[in-house]
């Protein structure tokens, strides 16, 4: 059975709504029909309808024993809306919708004999006579670019992930390991690695990506935006289809099957979601009915100077309902486990990327966008109410307080926040010649001064390996061996530092070029022992993170971390302890960030006399030298009352050692 046939056969008629059908004219091709109740309309207008995808857009229904499609679109300033598509040879006059009489601005109607798979647009006579052809904001499926029509479709799928859904609360808990592999689906791997016009299907991606992420022992995968978007060069961040997986790789059911496969492999799925802005493409949301329908009319609030795009009007109830419905859609229809909300800083601040005179203060004289703040709080409250075992993650780069604190504590309600300060400080530190690192130790250690302000995720994302910033391996100083050793110790520091982790694709094997969305990752690098060793190092770090309770049980608690030794600046050796719920699970992390071997290095610890090396970044399997390690740890009691012990440890050059 084809996808289209299956889609038709599983569409369900709307029961007992026949009394709402009225024929205007038996010769007319659009029947009066509605799925919307008065409550639907009122909640839509009030900004409290969070499942609009069930009543707006296109729906395959049976009316008077006749199968067809119900269309409903919000265009409050339109004077005429028609449906045009291949089914009527793109005639813009023959299938007019009827505007509701309740001043909602919703146009609707039923067209018989239109089933799943029909391309269509809305032809809108808008403000001051403007005529526009728009895609359906609520469509679940769109034509593959460069075509821009929506497609009649329903996202019905028979899920096989009951075991995952039953236990995912544990997988997504802040007290569990949370290690994310960030992926751009088009360029992770292509059928033709140099041809940007070739894509693997969702099924082909599934066959390759699921076992790879499982092998690498990541707990979650995060997809850069899969929502439909017209321009590949936007990486998905300039979206037009807020309810549709991109058709570049297949249909919505095939996307659902991919999520299902990840779940059956024990891997969570996070989606990038972009409620901060949208592009000005003619078929998209901008000037939808000839006026600023979805965006602020005042361009001091409505235009985004950084991305040449437009900002949602968070004050408008219908827009708020649209956005929260979009977020809920991905959780309900596709069983996703979290969203990473893009560009939160730009939503919160009226003066974001604007000079004096280019923005207007809020009613209290401040720079906060009060409507956006209220929207974000409602978003998080709604998602955690309806899906309590998921995570929402903020990409927020400022010092705005309470991003990941509950709304009842006057926070924004996110589950986690990207720790951009850690990322910048850590990369700045590791870029330094090791000779100078001792003088900059405070930059290295500063993260723990504010770590407990939020629930932080440590990100080494796509943004760090584009636009001339260089790939991770070439941020590191020294010769080739030293670059790899430096990167291994950086990753060890990341995986043993408190907080969730995120690593962008290609970083795990030390890609030697910046990420390019037009090609695929340079997988041939894995034929080199240096790159294969780096990949294996990241795999073992993931396994270490997942197997050691001290690294995750208290990763967001003050009692989960302790600096042990920061008194050797000149030698640039730093020691810290990670603590679990049980003292026996404590581990010791020793970082030697200079290219000097340090034999019999003394460390004073309390509590335990027996320690064992469980990870060494200098392992030969990682392309280290493999000749400086600790087959046994000598411990000498120096204070019996306080149970202080002196350990002597062998530290490899540019190496990290983890003891348990």
Radius of gyration: 28 Å
| Unreliable spans | 1-27
| Coarse morphology | elongated
Whole-Å distance between the termini?
56 Å
The beta-strand count equals 28
Tell me what you see in this structure.
The N terminus is likely disordered. The chain has 17 helices and 28 strands. Strand 1 and strand 2 form a beta hairpin. The strands form 7 sheets. Strands 9-10-13-16-17-18-19-20 form an 8-stranded parallel β-barrel. It has a 5-stranded antiparallel beta sheet with strand order 21-22-23-28-25, covered by helices on one side. Strands 1-2-5-4 form a 4-stranded antiparallel beta sheet, with no helix packed on it. It is α/β, with parallel strands linked by helices and 660 residues long. The longest helix has 19 residues. Among the domains are: 149 residues, Immunoglobulins (Immunoglobulin-like), CATH 2.60.40; 100 residues, Sandwich (Immunoglobulin-like), CATH 2.60.40. The radius of gyration is 28 Å and the shape is elongated. Helix 16 runs parallel beside helix 17.
